[in-house]
Amino acid sequence: MRRLIENRFGLLALVLIASGALFGVAFVSRPAPVAQVRPQAVRAPVESVTAVCPAPAGSRVSVITPPGAGGPGSATLSAIAAPDAKGTDAKDSGGKDPGEKDAVIDRPGLLWQREIASGGGPLMVDATGSMAAGLESAQTARETSGAQRGLAGVRCVEPGADTWFIGPGPAAAEMTLYLANPDSAPADITFMVYSGEGPVLSERGNGAVVKPGGHRVIRLRDLAPSPLIMALRVSTRSGRVAAAVKAVLGEGRGADWLPVAAAPATRVVVPGIPGTAGKRELYVAAPGERDTVVRIKAVLEDGSYALKNKETIEVPAGSTASLDLSTGIGGQPAALVLESDVPIVAGLKITGTGARQDVAFTAGADSIDLGSVVADAQATGGKQVSRLVLSAPFAPATVEVRLLPAKGEAPAPVEVKLAAAHTQEIRLTPRGSKDAFSVVVRPLPGSGQVYGGRVLDEATKDGQLVTAQPLAVGRIWALVPPAVDAPGVVLP
């Protein structure tokens, strides 16, 4: 019996030894673990763009797609139907006036620029394929007399669900809101106005519906007649709308379009302030439910610092406030960095010099990390002076500036280096040519954030004409999120 027990324990020991040996061999010979690579978003070229020029009649319209994308593509310009006599939705929702022909552009890298005859409504620019990546369009009007005297330019805007503007109110200027719906579904729109005294709700209602292929023109005085300054939010409950606002200050005081302002944020950069003389008026809105004290820094040619006695501006909850910065930044190219404990919206009015004044507007904008394209940098004839105002508020930056002419070969691009916390103003002048051109600005690898604007001005015997446009992020690339297997997509 004892020998049997000992044999059993010996057999068990042999089994354990053999199992250990097999486990050791398996452990040593096992394959190395495969590292789990987290899927990344893919950068893909934009293949479709729709933009609306809100009121191109009597203006020059410029359209450009930078070179680079391959394959077929085209951009079509077509008129959106005219509204009825009451300024409501277009009766003809088909999209264009009878007998009017579409224009088709199919050459990237070459500026298309035309003077549009008076009459007619908004113009839709619809691009696909190689003409879509980076496509930009703009309208610019020039008047030398009357209440509309001045240069008035605006970037043709893509339809969206939420758009902000900030500037004078209907008590200080004739403020007109242009709405267009190029989509095939109705746009149900709501308006909200923030004045110096707080939120304003119109007795006539604060909403509208724009039919597919239609547009509306609304006097903001009918929504909110009393504000001297205002921030306006245009949002949709359903659908999308292209929104634009024009300010006419009256005889001898100028006219221009308000650029779309960056959405509320706790840090806002207002770029593209030219180095010409004249009044500079800052507008800031705090659309939330908390008061705030906004801290202001100016980014100038010689560095960044707070302006003496103008370091802050107090903005009550749900209201808009203004501050005269003429003695701080007048006559200097600049950008403003505004910081607040609550989200804010900001913009700035630029007033030209002379016996009869003109105005221009800039507003909070995003950094141009993916590059930026300006369709209208100069018209044929060269009467207007075109400038870029570029700022690197936070870190050194390097950009490539490239001009794309309406005729002939494009000149070689120019590299511009920006020191941290500095602004540069660059006059755009193609050698030996007075033809129209567009401009492409592209940050180079390793560059810090860049903000900027393009300014057009013209000297006349009555006084300076001026318009400005903050640089918008180019619609060149789209980040496509990664696709992964997820049972939750199909499970209830």
Automatic annotation (TrEMBL):
Region annotation (Disordered) maps to 83-103
Pfam assignment, any one: DUF5719
Domain of life, per lineage = Bacteria
Q: Where is the composition biased (Basic and acidic residues)?
A: 86-103
What name does this protein carry? Secreted protein
